[in-house]
Specification:
Mean pLDDT of chain C: 88
Largest interface: A-B, 109 and 118 residues
Strand content of chain A: under 5%
Chains: A mainly alpha, B mainly alpha, C alpha/beta
Order of helices and strands of chain A: HHHHHHHHHHHHH
Oligomer: heterotrimer
Order of helices and strands of chain C: HEHEHEHHEEEEHHEHHHEHHEEHHHHH
Radius of gyration of chain A: 24 Å
Number of helices of chain A: 13
Shape of chain A: flat
Distance between the termini of chain A: 8 Å
Shape of chain C: globular
Largest sheet of chain C: 5 strands, mixed
Helix content of chain C: 40-55%
Strand order of the largest sheet of chain C: 2-1-3-11-6
Structural class of chain A: mainly alpha
Number of helices of chain C: 17
Helix content of chain A: 55-70%
Distance between the termini of chain C: 32 Å
Structural class of chain C: alpha/beta
Chain lengths: 304, 299, 423
């Protein structure tokens, strides 16, 4: 929706002309498929969310109106899950973006085959599947026999093995570290590309003005990175809202409910307790929340 | 951050004193050390995965882990291929379902992206945003209804059903990404073909598709990667183990009721990672273009 | 709403190309053959797959008109899959189930009652009383795998304990663990599953009962009873003293036990098979090295255990019930199946009052005898049913908070209770 706005509309479109059709046949296949695989399930979710529908019940559930929603708002686990989702998402995205930014600035202007190799190696974690990330870190985090504790004990930073994934206060940060490890390269990739897109004459003129390294970064490079940062952060926020694989394979939302995010909670409700109605109500609330972000994202795109 | 006095510039100052040289050198050293640290941070877990996959079962579960395999063995990998679990079919299932998803997404999305980029119709903007918003829906909310949909279509426990599931997020993404690639093609390129009186779909096929082919590959790869990462759909829609995908099979088979086999787990994890890595590095360059089109160029 | 018709058409577009590639090979079956579908996790795990495949092949050889189609589904997923399939009208004929999953499926009303079938048997079965729902028998016991307190004699000796005298009370257990911790800091004193899943609730239930706690079920005293708080406090003490390794699944302790890194381990009878397959111990070595006892008694002076064995169920919608029963009967009671699978691959006990002649020697081992004589009688019934999963999520979350957090026990108990009240 960006620089094309200039290209199209070269001819002023006559308002209220019957000549502009409502639709174009080329978008029909996409619309049809989306209506089927997304539209229908969304409508169905809305219908389920006002029923007391448990899959185990021999008699299908009845209409309960806003019943699911009112019990949802008094459900402490729902609020915990909402809070955890926010912490997990924004915390991971913020730190990953920062890390990706540091990597990109470190390697900016370093040419040559050896640095091309370094760039490629820094991207490796992004290509590791989420489930693998989860199991790998679970293995490394083990309290007894995990390499993380082994290294920390060896270096003297801790004197007892730390139960990373089994302590209510540590589990969330530990999962986030795994997530950040996997996500930071994405920011690094995009920000490196954005840095290389800064016109040479801008850099040169700054050089002539004897700008120091920090001021070069602060006044010249960062303004150029603002938009890519906004767009990629929003993209990753949405991806993290939906992140099921990492948390499920690492902690299943535990210990206690300390890493239960909305996605884990809904999965447990629907596919462990078979409370389809209640789970759908949770899903609807969540849909609304995501829509807010979607609108923000669309706005950010428009600004470009 | 904005403390400008910390480091001098990399530009040589008029009277180059030995002090600034020292400054510069130490700045370089710090920079290289930081790069070294970044490399260790990024690669250490991957090394650990590879090294564990070459350990015997007893070595992989030791309470005092060994830094490298003391008795390196390929047993874990051989166990995957010739073992009692159908790992070859897990691999095949994942490749087929992800590839089909990518193919369908690109084929269906390209005309729509072309129309959204070039055509004039009243619902254009709203459809563009709808596609974008669909892309952001939480997948798990669709899970139960999708299950029932596949059930009625007799597609449960089949790779086709899985492809339908993956399409929910693959297609909107493909439309959006293809549009940004087509946007980057100057409209003048099409003029000549238009003048020759070719219909629109011909222009798309003969002129636009060849031009954005790298973009098509990138989009396909991205959809492929996302499907490869997906865990929740195969867990829910596939019921028999021999039709399962790799990520779900990892979850299902290594958390058995008897024991957790970390060496075998890491061997399987390595095999799960390789195709994704190859796909990613093949297209990473144009991937950036697609993801940030406008965001970067328009800045 | 989209009609199913148009769903079908669009799906067909997907399907044609996909099906062409995903070759779904169905074995050509002769007309007169009966095909039974058997959902199980025995064939989904490398450790048991060869065993179950052999037993199935033997059954097919003995019954040439029946063919078994084994569907491998993992242990953690099978209940979810079966509930969904029962609801969608394509259940298997027979399935393997265990623990609460059996009662979860029974709640759908789609399991065939087995009383009449069992009445026809000419052998006496054990453990039927715990498989009744509304006085109907809902499942056939396939094997018994109760849990006992395994003790590693070598570690005990090293710690200056008497390896032939395992701890009999919670207090003795605490002293023994202290001695182990003192002498061998790298050994986990007690292997206990503290993950959050229905299975670990089953596994920890006997410990709660030992303290007199009964958070849910019939005659429950709730999560805020003094007994439950005492249990939670005890769990917290264990964690703080470093006696347990929180968050490991029961299966993650087993390779460590095989390396002599676990002193006492709360685990099922099948541990022996797993340890021997991991470290290659012979039977004699194993019996010299490991023993098993009933759970140490708590304030109430009683031992408790849980049944982790597997059951077989038949689905009410099956159209081949007689063939299905023939197969179930073979798996659970035939000496061949018991020898080739139950005792060997599964290292569990057969569900028979009297061991068949042919197997009397194989079943006469110190471990099997300890289980039969001292542990099986202590199995405590569990509050299984459709609400058990939600209750275990709540209770185990509380246990995890006690073990891993610093919140006051009273607050944890209160939050567990508020979760339980929501159901």
């Amino acid at each position: 929706m960006s620089n094309t706005a200039v290209m199209e509309n070269q001819k002023p479109v006559r308002r209220a002309s019957g000549r502009v059709p409502w639709l174009d046949w080329m978008v029909m296949p996409t619309l049809a498929v989306l209506a089927l695989v997304v539209g229908y399930p969304v409508v169905y979710t809305l219908m389920l969310s006002v029923q007391d529908y448990n899959l185990l019940d021999i008699v299908p559930g009845g209409y309960v109106g806003a019943g699911n929603y009112s019990s949802l708002f008094s459900d402490p686990v729902f609020w915990t899950a909402l809070y955890n989702t926010a912490v997990y998402t924004f915390g991971s995205v913020f730190v990953s973006a920062l890390l990706g930014l540091i990597f990109a600035l470190l390697l900016d202007n370093l040419a040559g085959p050896q640095f091309r190799a370094v760039r490629a190696l820094l991207l490796v974690p992004w290509a590791v599947p989420f489930v693998v990330v989860a199991f790998l870190f679970r293995y490394m985090y083990m309290q007894n026999g995990g390499i993380v504790n082994e290294m920390l004990l060896w270096s003297g930073l801790i004197d007892h093995p730390v139960p990373w994934l089994n302590n209510a206060a540590l589990a969330m940060p530990a999962v986030m570290v795994a997530n950040i490890w996997a996500m930071a390269p994405f920011f690094f990739l995009l920000l490196s590309a954005a840095l290389s897109g800064i016109p040479n004459e801008v850099i040169e003129s700054a050089r002539v003005d004897r700008a120091r390294t920090w001021s070069m970064i602060w006044h010249i490079k960062l303004p150029f990175l603002r938009n890519p940062l906004i767009v990629s952060s929003l993209l990753m926020i949405i991806a993290n809202f939906n992140d099921f694989a990492k948390i499920w394979a690492m902690t299943q939302g535990g210990p206690g409910f300390s890493t239960t995010t909305l996605v884990v909670y809904v999965y447990r409700l629907a596919f462990e307790n078979f409370e389809f109605g209640y789970a759908s109500a949770t899903g609807v609330i969540w849909l609304l929340l995501l829509l807010v972000f979607a609108v923000a994202y669309v706005r950010a795109l428009r600004m470009n | 951050m904005s403390n400008e006095e910390t480091f001098p510039s990399s530009a040589a100052l008029g009277a180059s004193s030995s002090r600034t040289d020292a400054w510069q050198r130490s700045g370089k050293v710090v920079q290289m050390a930081a790069i070294g640290f970044a490399l260790v941070w990024s690669l250490a877990p991957v090394y650990w995965m590879l090294s564990t996959s070459l350990k015997t079962e007893l070595e992989a579960t030791r309470l005092d882990p060994t830094l490298w395999p003391h008795e390196p063995t390929l047993a874990n990998y051989i166990g995957l291929g010739g073992g009692t679990l159908p790992f070859v079919s897990f691999f095949f299932n994942t490749v087929v379902s992800c590839f089909l998803t990518a193919l369908i997404a690109v084929v269906v999305a390209t005309p729509a992206a072309y129309a959204l980029s070039r055509a004039q119709f009243r619902l254009r903007t709203s459809i563009g945003y709808t596609v974008l918003i669909v892309r952001m829906l939480p997948m798990i909310v669709l899970l139960a209804p999708l299950y029932l949909l596949l059930l009625n279509a007799q597609l449960l426990d089949s790779l086709s059903g899985l492809v339908v599931g993956f399409t929910t997020f693959g297609l909107p993404f493909a439309v959006w990404m293809m549009k940004s690639f087509i946007d980057a093609v100057p409209i003048e390129v099409e003029e000549a073909a238009r003048v020759d009186g070719y219909p629109r779909w011909q222009v798309l096929l003969r002129v636009v598709v060849p031009l954005v082919f790298p973009g098509i590959l990138t989009t396909g790869t991205f959809v492929f990667m996302e499907a490869w990462n997906n865990l929740i759909y195969p867990l829910t829609f596939i019921t028999s183990l021999d039709k399962q995908t790799l990520p779900a099979a990892l979850v299902l088979t290594f958390t058995g009721q008897f024991k957790t086999d970390w060496g075998g787990m890491m061997a399987a994890a390595t095999i799960t990672t390789l195709p994704l890595m190859i796909a990613f590095f093949a297209v990473q360059r144009s991937m950036v273009r697609g993801l940030t089109s406008g965001a970067v160029a328009g800045a | 709403m989209t009609s199913i018709h148009s769903c079908r058409r669009v799906s067909a577009l997907f399907a044609t190309s996909a099906l062409a590639m995903a070759a779904v090979v169905t074995a050509a079956t002769a007309q007169e053959k009966i095909t039974l579908t058997f959902a199980n996790w025995a064939s989904a795990e490398a450790a048991t797959r060869p065993g179950i495949e052999k037993v199935i092949a033997d059954f097919e050889a003995a019954n040439p008109n029946i063919e078994i189609e084994s569907e491998a589904i993992s242990f953690s997923e099978i209940a979810r899959q079966l509930v969904l399939r029962v609801r969608s009208g394509n259940p298997p004929d027979v399935s393997q189930l265990a623990g609460n999953d059996t009662f979860l499926l029974a709640a759908t009303g789609k399991l065939e009652p087995l009383d009449e079938y069992v009445a026809r048997l000419d052998v006496e079965l054990t453990g039927l009383e715990d498989l009744r729902l509304d006085s109907k028998l809902i499942a056939l016991p396939w094997n018994h795998a109760p849990a006992g307190l395994w003790y590693n004699k070598a570690i005990m000796e090293e710690a200056g304990l008497d390896p032939e005298n395992p701890p009999k009370t919670i207090d003795e257990l605490m002293e023994a663990m202290a001695a182990v911790k003192e002498s061998q800091p790298d050994v986990i004193p007690l292997g206990l599953d503290t993950t959050n899943r229905a299975f670990s609730m089953s596994s920890n239930w006997p410990w709660m009962r030992t303290f007199g706690a009964q958070p849910v079920g019939e005659g429950a005293t709730g999560a805020e009873s003094p007994e439950m708080k005492a249990y939670l406090q005890w769990m917290r003490d264990l964690a703080q003293k470093g006696y347990i390794d929180p968050g490991r699944k029961i299966g993650e302790f087993r390779p460590l036990a095989a390396q002599d890194k676990v002193a006492f381990h709360w685990d099922q009878v099948l541990l022996q098979g797993v340890i021997q397959s991991t470290n290659g111990m012979s039977d004699e070595e194993f019996y010299e090295h490991w023993g098993v006892a009933a759970m140490p008694t708590g304030p109430g002076g009683e031992s408790h255990s849980f049944e982790g064995g597997h059951q077989l169920v038949m689905f009410a919608d099956s159209e081949k019930k007689e063939a299905a029963w023939k197969f179930m009967q073979y798996l659970a009671t035939s000496p061949d199946a018991i020898a080739n699978y139950t005792v060997s691959y599964n290292s569990s006990l057969p569900p028979l009052q009297e061991a068949p002649e042919a197997l009397s020697e194989e079943l006469d081992t110190p471990i099997f005898n300890a289980f039969r004589e001292r542990i099986i009688p202590t199995v405590a019934p569990q509050p299984y049913g459709p609400d058990f999963a939600a209750a275990s999520t709540a209770v185990m979350a509380g246990v995890q908070q006690a073990v891993t957090g610093t919140e006051p026990i009273d607050d944890i108990a209160a939050s567990v209770q508020s979760q339980l009240d929501r159901q």
